[in-house]
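Repro case for the chain-ordering regression, as requested:
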Amino acid sequence: MYDNNNIEKLLKENRYEADSPDFFKVWKKFKRHKIEKTEEVYIMGKKNKGARVLVWLLSFMVIVGLAFFAITKINDAKRSEKIVSGEAILVTFVVGNVEISKMGSSAYRALYVDDTIEMGDSIKTGRSSFCEIQMVGRGVFRIEENSDLEIARLVNIDGKIDSRMKLGQGEIALTPRRTERGDTFEVETSVAVAAVRGTRFSVTSDEEGNVSVAVAEGIVEVKPNIASLYQAKEDGLISEGAVDILDKEIVIPVSVNKGEEVKLGKSEVDIMDRAIGSAIREVAQSEGPITEETLSVRTEVETEEVKPSISEKITVKTRENVNREVEVKIEEARTAGNQEEIVRLNRIAVAVAPEKSQRIETSSLVTKTELSEERVRKLDNVSQERLITDIVELVRFRIESQPAGAEVFIDNEKAGITPFSKNLVKGSKIEVKLVKDGFVEFSRIYEATTATMVVRENMVAKAVEPAADVVVEDTTDISETSDVVLVDETEIKETRIMPGDLEWNKSIRFTQDIKSPVVHRNRVYTTSGSELYILSLDGTIVNKVSVASGRNLSAPVIADNTVYMGSDRGGIYAYSLTGEKIWNNDQPGMALYDTSPGAGSGLVAAPSSDKGIKVFTKDGNLKASIDISEQIFSSPVIAANGKMLIYATERGEVIGYNLESGREAWKKDVYSSRIVSPIMGNNNVVAVFERGSGKLTGLNPNNGEIMWTRELAGAARARIAPVETGNRILVIDANETRLFVVNLNNGALMLSKAYPKISSFPYFSAANNTVYVGTANGQLHAYNLATQAEWSGNVGAGVAVVYGDADSAYAVTQSSMVKFFGKEKIVNQ
Amino acid sequence: MGIKDLSDTELISKMKGLDSDDAIYSDVFCQYANELYVRYFSQGYNIARYYGLRNDDANDAVQNAFIKVLHSINGFNLRKEFKPWFFKIVLNCVRDRYRELSRHNHIEIDKIEKISNDSFDKFHIKDTLNGIISKLPVKLREVVVLRVYADLSFNEISEALNVSVRQLHNRLNKAYELIRVSLEEGQ
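-- result from build under test --
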């Protein structure tokens, strides 16, 4: 029984009657508000209240300022102290999704450049993300994608670096600085420990726990991580000091040399670990708890009595345990026919039965290979040169782009995507290149000068036309604030853009009314008063040329790469597309109507009231001078490839003038009233609009034969002159509430559509077969002649000029230029 | 030209144009403010009521909105439309009051009014409609009240709510659909 229309009607009919709107009450409240306000001021002091308030305010600000300064300074000092001592690691480079969890907290937050990491913190990197952290002056670490890392230790009591990082999964590459200070760097995974002095290497732990260690410089010692030792300590079987001794005595680490990579399987280590665990248990049960003392005593005794030491006992037991397990497993593998497994198990058996010593050799457990290309490349990321040695010289550099998501190249190497942050050494220069599909490549050299550099660059969309015409606008803004709000770069929002959604709105001011514009090669040409305006489609005035001071220019006409304009006092002005004057011919005499010249085929015809029409070549040479006794109100047109000049007189005659023979070729006297609107047309058809009757007539320019006529109801006495673009004649009726579209070639009426009060010249875009009009109530309307789809956008003020192409639509008002999306699309924001 | 004949924008520009420290507390200003009040109080009141406020709260919220408007009139950009700006403030005040009340459980948000055939006579239809509209999801409710009771165009609502016109169409249709279903269920 209801549909949406009568629902709205029903709702509208049922309004509440408000109680007699008692404005006085509101006014009293409003005034009371004022009194309350003034009273607040009086509390501060009755006399000189302004000054008193100011003094209070100032002293308050000074105190707050000082406190803030002190706090930040103290924090800064503390922070640098920590960084220099190695208690804190500085984040120098972040790309993508990198998160940190501070010690004791399970929550992760985004990690940014210039943050510090301390002992107990954990770092997590996401897919295609990585971060670089540095112990200033001591080492560079790079955490690759999909990794998680815990900083277990950093410095010991003596202030020496005793760093141990626990890699849960993923990859870390590091270069500790060569040092004689006794610093140690260790990377631990659940399976292995890699320890180092002065090398460059990486540790990788895959999802199953298998580890590989790659070394680019120096030597790294790798050995299995014997978790059962720590378990035994927990169980009270061995003392804490004994753990370290046994750890060294039982297993011989393998040395990984420059250019080598070793892989250590988790299952091997697990077997080893279990065997050692039960060996320790057995020995501890027979010999009592193992401590540092028992270990050292037995060792001394051993030299005299040739009695096996505790550690030897453990090794022997371990060997037995391993062999037992391996035998069973080899049997299993044999029945399953798994040769690889047999080889692997044999390797474990070999590792526990070395020929030379009684200890377990890691070298037999691992597989050594040469360093792969990929590893070499990754390790190059952590070279010594990258090491920052002095914290004070760091500059935080951040680059943002509009739109975001551009690829960033630093010194021609891909570094990430915007927004992008990096620490630079103060005084250094970098060349930054931003690349994004559909945008002009951006490149610029920055010098790291201030403590914090934040640059925002606008990327200019590539023009459809040759790029030579595009002016790259550079709006660099280097702000020197120390407090930079970092934008969350991880969140990507998808937005559906509909036709008519606003893209931007820029303010432009014209001194006088603007004339019917011409759009040519992504530039809008229009005149206002005595000035020629050239606007780019990004809403900026590219050029504003004062053409003829004291005169009012006609609407511009563009032909043969030249902008032609007439004026209300006659004359003809030819300017280049960029706004340089080519020539002008200041014909004396007044034109009553500001008639545009007619141009085309290398010629331009300028009407003038008392001198008839003068035809010039595009270089400004007079080609023909036609004496006409009547006034010319309508812009003439050059047709038939420059052969014919068609003009109309005040008496309603249309005349075809043969420019080649210099004679009048034909004359049509079919109109009852004078013709004032510009004659429109191409080489084959010219159309004349008779304002008095609202009739359009199409004529053959060669012989004046009438090809078609079209009467448009309501178009008589139209104020806005018809315009022709792309072989479509657009006529606005006298009430300015209806738009007609007529095909120039055959006179067919393609559209008759009602609009609110139209205030702009209409525009037809052949690219998407769409007509655009602007209305006085501040709307831009688009209508697609083919699909009949329509949309509108809110401009905000009366529209004077509209223009559209396949992707966008533009509206120009007296004070602004607005761009709308013309196509539905989905964008990432 | 009398005050009554001025357009909203002209009215505001006159109010802004008053040139003295206390101009906004002057009698002249009061006259203009009164005119605004007469023009828009009833619409604001209806918005408040259909949003779900009771008589007194609705009166209060709209009066507060007016006070806010009068205080910030100097900041109004004359190049913009008045109505979207005004009703945005009204809606904000109404929304605030509504939230405040629902926090204190003064509004029984979940209360479903029984819609019987009897309630369909002239006397009750407002209550019925109110019952339906004030229980619409907020997003839909706001579009309905601005469209119906503030009589705004889609573009103006779009400006006030910062939502695209296309979305407004969808929301309004959805809202009308819900209202229709509720009404028909009640029959």
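Ordering looks correct now. Chain B has one domain: 3-186.
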